[in-house]
Structures are given as C-alpha cells and as structure tokens.
Design goal:
Elements lengths: L1 H13 L2 H18 L6 H4 L5 H19 L4 H6 L1 H7 L4 H20 L3 H10 L8 H28 L3 H23 L8 H6 L2 H9 L5 H24 L3
Helix pairs in contact: 1-7, 2-4, 2-7, 4-9, 4-10, 7-9, 7-13, 9-10, 9-12, 9-13, 12-13
C-alpha cells in the first residue's frame, strides 16, 4: 500500500495538481473570508469562521474530483492499470494506497487555513473570543468530508477512462450525498419522515460536528459511508468489468 501511496503522491506533485488544488482552495477561501463583502469576516462584526466551514464543502465538491479523476481513469486510458494489477499487490492495497494519497493531499490543503483561525482569534474582542470547540469540530467535519469526497471521486474514476466524465460523476455524487437528502426532506410530502430522511444526508452530520460536540454517531456515519464507497470500488475493481 505504501508503494502505491508514494507513487500517487509523486504523480500529483510532478503534475502540479497538488500545487494547483491547494492554491485554488486557499485563494478562494481567503477571498471569501477576507475580501468579498458578503462573506468577509471583517464585515460580520464578530469573530467567526463560518465562511470557511459553510462554503468549504462546496469548493471541495469541485477540487477533490479534480484530484481523484485521474486515479483510475488515466491508468485505464494509458493501459498501465493492467500492469498495476499484475504486481504483487492486493486490490485493497491498490485502493487504500490511492485513497490515502488523495485524502492526504486534501488534508494538506486544509492545514494552512489554521492561519485563518489564528487571525480571527487575534481579531476577537477580547482576544480569543471565538468558539474554539466549534472550530475544532468543524475542522474534524471538514477532514472527514474530504475523506468521503475522495472515496466518491475514486469510485467515479473507476467507472470510465475519460477524466472529464469521471470529474462530472464525482461532482454530481458529492452534491447528492452532501445536500441532496436535505433538499429532498424539505419537500412537504414526507410528514414525520422528513427529519429521518434528513439524517441520511451528509450535511446533517457535518452541521452537528460544527457545533463542537463530537458525537460518535456522526463520526461513525462518515466512516460508514466512506467505507461503503471503498467496498464498492473493491467490488468493481475485483470484477475486472470496466
């Protein structure tokens, strides 16, 4: 697994994908947090990082598929996937190596935003007047969400040899899992079932973590959906029918 992880990371770094993704994410979030009047922390009048944690997932919906779209699609198109599968590696070693390389890149993109927390912390009146527990919970939620989107993107990459098609599928599935269930629950036809339906969506559990209360049910939810995506990837890869 380590060999695959290192190979994928080198591939990202050598193709400038890592630099582009991290730069776009930090620039976009930085502009939203500090420059654009409608979302700027400086316009709120109170120390808050809501902009990062509410808009970050939507930025991830496009950036993470850009990372994962090449994982299997490029190897299928170039024919190197056959060579990879003949090496003394199990399917799980291949899948987990690729998955953790993508997730690590996402975490590297999130890490520099800690300077935003420090800035908001210093801007508080008094200094430190910020909901640190909520920020920690939100960061955990954002990291777990990045892991889920990475698993979705990798699965999408296995469906096709076309990276653009893989990107579109990953964006669509990420959006459906993130806010689709909440939008569906908002339709006034479910009655008492609406709250239950909403709990199936990622947004419900992501918002729960953002309150600063790390409930194991929310963590288990993210872990379960991510594991489900990885198992689907294993089944498709194992069938060799792609």
């Amino acid at each position: 697994m380590i060999q695959v992880l290192v190979k994928e990371l080198n591939g990202f770094l050598n193709s400038f994908i890592a630099y582009i993704v991290i730069s776009v994410f930090l620039t976009g979030i930085g502009l939203l947090m500090w420059v654009f009047p409608d979302t700027s922390v400086l316009e709120y009048g109170y120390a808050d990082m809501e902009t990062l944690f509410s808009l970050g997932p939507y930025v991830f919906m496009f950036l993470i598929p850009a990372i994962t779209m090449r994982m299997f699609a490029e190897e299928k198109k170039s024919g190197t996937i056959e060579l990879l599968l003949t090496k003394p590696l199990t399917d799980w070693q291949i899948i987990l190596g690729k998955y953790f390389s993508g997730w690590l890149l996402v975490c590297l993109a999130i890490f520099p935003t800690l300077i935003y927390y420090w800035s908001v912390y210093q801007l508080g009146d008094p200094v430190g007047n910020i909901d640190t527990a909520g920020v920690i919970g939100s960061y955990i939620g954002l990291i777990l969400l990045g892991g889920l989107f990475t698993a979705i993107g990798m699965l999408s990459s296995l469906f096709t040899s076309n990276q653009i098609v893989s990107f579109i599928i990953a964006v669509f599935l990420s959006f459906i899992f993130y806010s689709g269930f909440q939008s569906l629950a908002a339709i006034n036809v479910w009655g008492d079932w609406s709250p239950i339906l909403e709990e199936f969506g990622v947004l419900y559990h992501y918002n729960a973590l953002s309150k600063g209360l790390i409930d194991t049910r929310d963590v288990v939810y993210f872990g379960s959906i991510t594991a489900f995506m990885l198992v689907l990837t294993k089944l498709i890869l194992g069938s060799r029918k792609w």
